[in-house]
Amino acid sequence: MLFHSWVFWSYFVLVYLAYLRLGRRGQNLLLLGASYLFYAAWDWRFCGLLLVSTVVDFWAGHRIATSEGRRRRVYLLISLVTNLGLLGFFKYFDFFAKSMAAMLAHFDIQASPVLLNVILPVGISFYTFQTLSYSIDVYRGVTKHTRNPLDFALYVSFFPQLVAGPIERSDRLLPQIEHERRLTHDHLRQGFWWILYGMFMKVAVADNLSVYADGLFGDPAPQGFEVWTRVLAFTFQIYGDFAGYSAIARGVASLMGFSLMVNFDAPYLSSSPSEFWRRWHISLSTWLRDYLYIPLGGNRGGVIGTCRNLALTMLLGGLWHGAGWNFVLWGAYQGALLMIYRVVQRPVVRAVDRFMGSDPATPTAPVPAAARHVLRWIMTLFFFLLTIYGWLLFRCHSWEQIVTLTRAGLDLNALWEARDANLLATIAVLIAPVLLLDALNYRTGSVDFVLRWPKAVRWLFYAAMGAWIFLLGHRGGEAFIYFQF
Amino acid sequence: MTGPAQHPETDASRREHLRVRNAAFWRTVALAVVVIVASHVIERRMSYSLADKPMIVHGGYGLSLARIPPKRPGTFRVLMLGNSVYQKCGICQQYRADAEAEHRPIEFINLAQIGASINDYPLELGWALAQDARPDAVIVSLGSFTFSDLGFTFNTDADQIAYVPSVHRLIPESFYERNFDRTAAVQRTISAIAPLRRIDTILQYDATQAIQMDLKERGVDIAWLTGTLPLPRLNLVVNQFDADRRRGRRPEGEAWLARPFKPDADQTFNELLDMIDHAGVPAFVIRQQCGHKPISEQALALIEEAVSRPRAVPVGFVDLEHLWTPDDFGDDIHPTREHAPAYTRSHYDAFIRFIESTASAAAIAPTTSGAMTSQRN
Fold first, then answer.
1. A258: chain B residues, CB-CB within 8 Å
2. How does pLDDT run across A215-263, given as a tens digit for each residue?
3. Which of B1, B4, B20 sits opposite A448 (nearest CB)?
4. CA B170, CA B130: separation in Å to the nearest integer?
C-alpha cells in the first residue's frame, strides 16, 4: 500500500472518516487495527514480527521501570537481543553467511553456507530501532514506561511512519497517543501542505529521475558525462523519494492531530559533512548519535577517540541501510568525510579567518558578509560533489562497477564527449524546483514557509504544484527506495 | 508549527477541537464525493461512441471511454475483438466500406486494442455486452501474439473495468480467480468506484499533448523535454502505417521474444467462447497472419479444440495464415497500406460466408435501398 497509490488514499479516507467520529480510545484502537492491516497488505506473516517486537519491548519496558539494580540491565539486554536478533536474522544472516563463505574461499576453503532466503520484512529496520529506543530511554529514565499495551502497540505500529520512518522517540510520540489529540486548523493546513510537498517530491521528482538513474547502473560502458548526470539524477531521486515519503507520513499524521519529526531539512545545501547529517534522515542520525555515538564516547576521547567513534557509528549506519558491502562502503565513506572534516575543520577555519582578517589574534577589518557568503557556497558546492560521489558508492552493486564508473567519471578527456544536452536539461528541470524549495526552506528555517504566505498566493502555489504533478508526474508507481532498508 | 499534543483542558479549546474535527470530517466526505462524481463526469465527457469511431482511440488504453450506442433496428451488429492489426490498419474502415458497397445492413463495432491478448478479450467483450450492445455476431481475430505470454496478465487497460458490477456479472468467476489476486481486485474496484484512477494516464497524455501542440503553434518546441521525460505513451501509434517507413524496426519490442503461450490460454479462450455462447450469437474466429511468424502449433491445437466443442450457437473458424508473403507486412507484423485492403477483404469475405451459412443469413442480405450508408468512418 504505497503512499502515492489510489489504494492507500482510499484506505486512508475510510480510516480518517471513522477516526474523526471516535474518542481517543476508539481512535487508538482504530489506528492500531488500521496499522496492522496496512502492514498486512505487504505480507500478513510479518505482523507476527511486529507483534513479537511489541510484546517483548512492552514487557521489558515495564520490568526495567519496576526493577532495580542489575536486573534492569538484564531486561534491557533481553530487549536488545530480541530486536537486534530479529533484525540480524531477517536482514543480515544471509549477507554475513555469504560474506564468510567468500572470505574463506580466498583461503581456498570451500564452504557452502546455510542460507535462509527469507524475504526482508518491510520496515523492520525502522520499527526495531523505534522499539529499541523505548527500552533504552526507559532504562535511562528519559521516558516513563507506558502501562497501556494498546498504546504501546500503536506507538510501534503507527502506520504513517511504520515502514520508512521517521523513527520516532517514545518521549515524543507516546504522549501524543496517551493524551487526547486536539485537532486544529494548523494541523489540517500543515497536513495538506506536507502531503502535497511529499507527493511532488516522490511522483514529480524521484520517480521521473529514477528512469535516468537506472540507465547508468545497467550500462556496461558508461561515458564520463553520463556518469555524473545520471548519478546527479540518483542523488535527487533518493532525496525526493525518502523526503517525499517522510513528508507524506508527517502530513497524514498531522491530519489526525499527530506531530511527527521533520526528517529532512534541505540536506544538499549543507556546507559540511556534519551539517549534512544534521539535515539528512534526521531521525536516524539523531538515533545513531544518542544510542551509539555518545555511548561509545562521542567526542570526549580526543581526536583519535572521536574519529574512532565516528567511523564505527557511520559504518553501522551504512550497514543499517542494507545487507550489502556497498552500504558498508558508503558508511565508511561518510565516516571518513566526517573524520577529515573534524580534523581539518579548526585549522582551516582559523586559516580562513586569518586570510579574511577576522582572526581574533590579528584583528583587522571585519569580514565582509558577501565574502563569507561566497566562501560558504563554495564549500557547499564542494561538499555536494563529495555527496554525489557517495551516492555512486551507495548505488553500485559491485566493486567492479564502482571502479568502472569512477574511472569513467574521472576521464576528463571523455567528460564532454557524447554529452546529451537534452538529458542534462531534463534533469535540471526536475531538480530545479527541489533546489528552490530547499533554498526557501533553508532561508526560512522550515518547509512550512508556504503556510506563512497570503492565502491567495499559497493556493496559487498549491495549484502550480498540483499541475506539475498531474502533467509531469510519473505514473509508474515505483515503490519507495527506503522500504528495502 | 504544531508540537506534540499537550493542550490545556478548557471548554473553549475543546469546542474548537470539536468544530475543527467536524469540519475535517465533512470536508473529507465532500472531497471523496467530488473525486468520485468528478471521475464519472470526466470519463463520461471524454467518452465517445464506437459507432462513430472506427476504433478505440487511445491505443492499448481507454477501453472505458468507448461507448456503444443502442442498436438501430434493422442492422446486423458485429463486435470485433482483436489486436493492433484490427485496431490500426484501417481494417474496420475497410469492413464498413465493403459492407456499404454491397448494401449490407451490417454495423461493425471495433473493440480491438493494440497489444490485446486473449486475457483482454473477455473484458472487452464484457464491456460491450454490459452496455447492452446486443450484438448479432462476434469476430474474434487471433494473431501471432494473442496467446503469447509477455509477462503481464493483461496487455491493455481492459482489466480496469473488470470490477464494474455490470461487467463482473457477465464474465465467468473462474476468469477472476485466475487473473486477479486480492491486491489487483482492490485496485480495480477503486477504478470502478472512482474512474479517475483508470483514466488518469490518458488525461495526462491528452493534456501534455495539447500543451505541447499549443506551444509549438506559438513557436516554442518543448519536445526536448517531453521526449526525454518518461511521460505516458499509451502504447499508441497514431497511424500504424507509419511503421511502413520504419522497415526492419519491430514496433512490438520484445513481443517476438515472449513465451508463445500463456499457461491458461485455453481456459480463457473457452471462457470467451462461452460468453459469446451465453449471449446467443454466432462467433467467428479468424486466425490471422502477422508477418512471417505463424501462430504456434500449441495455440492452433487449442483453437481447433475450442471451436469444435458443441455449443448452442454456431462457431466458425477460418485459418487465413499462409495466404501472404512476408513482404506484405511492412514491419513484420502489420499489413502495409497497399496490402491492407486485400488483407481485409479476405477476412471480410470469410466472415460473410460464415454468416451466410448460419440462420442469420437473411439479416445480412444486401438491401436494394442501400439504407446502411450512415456509418461514419
1. 5
2. 787 777 778 888 889 999 999 999 999 999 999 999 999 999 999 999 9
3. B1
4. 7
Residues of B in contact with A10 (CB under 8 A): 190, 193-194
- With CA atoms as reference, report the closest residue to B3 among A39, A94, A190: A190
Omega of the bond leading into B8 within 30 degrees of 0 (cis): no
Question: Is residue B180 within a helix (H) or strand (E), and if so which, with residue range?
Answer: none
Q: Cβ separation of B1 and A429 shorter than 8 Å?
A: no
CB contact under 8 A, A182 and B229: no
In sequence order, the β-bridge partners of residue B66 are: B48
- B201 CB near a chain A CB, below 8 Å? yes
Q: Is A281 left (phi over 0), alpha (psi -120 to 50) or beta?
A: left
Cβ-Cβ contacts under 8 Å, B20 against chain A: 183-185, 187-188
Cα–Cα distance for residue pair A229/A188, rounded to 1 Å: 38
Instruction: Give the integer Cα–Cα distance in Å for B354 and A95.
Output: 65
How distant, in Å, are the alpha carbons of A89, A90, A156, A235, B158 from that of A96?
10, 11, 28, 28, 46
Active site residue A474: no
Q: A190 to chain B: nearest residue by CA? A: B1
Q: Which CA distances in Å does B296 have to A282, B259, B270, B273, B283?
A: 58, 10, 18, 20, 22
Distance CA B7, CA A179 (A): 9
Question: Which chain A residues are Cβ-neighbours of B14 within 8 angstroms?
Answer: 182
Strand ranges (DSSP E) for chain B? 48-49, 66-67, 76-81, 106-110, 137-142, 283-287, 315-319
Q: Which CATH class is domain B49-194+235-364?
A: alpha beta
Closest by CA to A243, choosing from A265, A270, A213, is A265
Task: Tell me the one-letter amino acid at A54.
Answer: T
Flag whether residue A304 sits within 8 Å of chain B, measured between CB atoms: no
Strand partners, B49: B67
What residues of B are in contact with residue A226 (Cβ under 8 Å)?
A: none
Cell of A266: 534541505
% of chain A with per-residue pLDDT over 90:
64
Which amino acid appears at position A65 of this protein? Answer: A
B56 vs B68: CA distance, rounded Å: 11
Angstroms from B77 CA to nearest CA on chain A: 37
Quote the CA–CA distance of B155 and B151 in Å, as a whole number: 9
Nearest CA in chain B to A18: B25
Summarize pLDDT for B188-213 with one digit per residue, the tens.
999 999 999 999 999 999 999 899 99
Q: Are A307 and A331 in contact (CB under 8 A)?
A: no
User: Smallest CA–CA separation between A192 and chain B, in Å?
Assistant: 11
Whole-angstrom distance, CA of residue A384 vs CA of residue A389: 9
Q: What does the pLDDT look like over B251-291, one tens digit per residue?
A: 455 566 677 788 899 999 999 999 999 999 999 999 876 65
Rounded distance, CA A51 to CA A216, Å?
41
The verdict on ipTM greater than 0.95 is no
| A256 near B CB under 8 A | no
Judge whether A49 and A37 are in contact, CB under 8 Å.
no
The residue of B13, B14, B15, B20 whose CB has the most chain A CBs within 10 angstroms, and thus the best one to mutate to test that interface, is B20
Q: Chain B residue closest to A207 (CA)?
A: B230
Q: Which of B6, B17, B200 sits opposite A475 (nearest CB)?
A: B200
Whether B8 has its CB under 8 Å from any CB of chain A: the answer is no
CA dist B353 to A273, B90, B317, B366, Å? 79, 21, 11, 13
Cα–Cα distance between A14 and B294 in angstroms, integer?
Answer: 51
Q: Using CB atoms within 10 A of its CB, is residue A397 exposed (0-12), middle (13-18) or buried (19+)? A: exposed
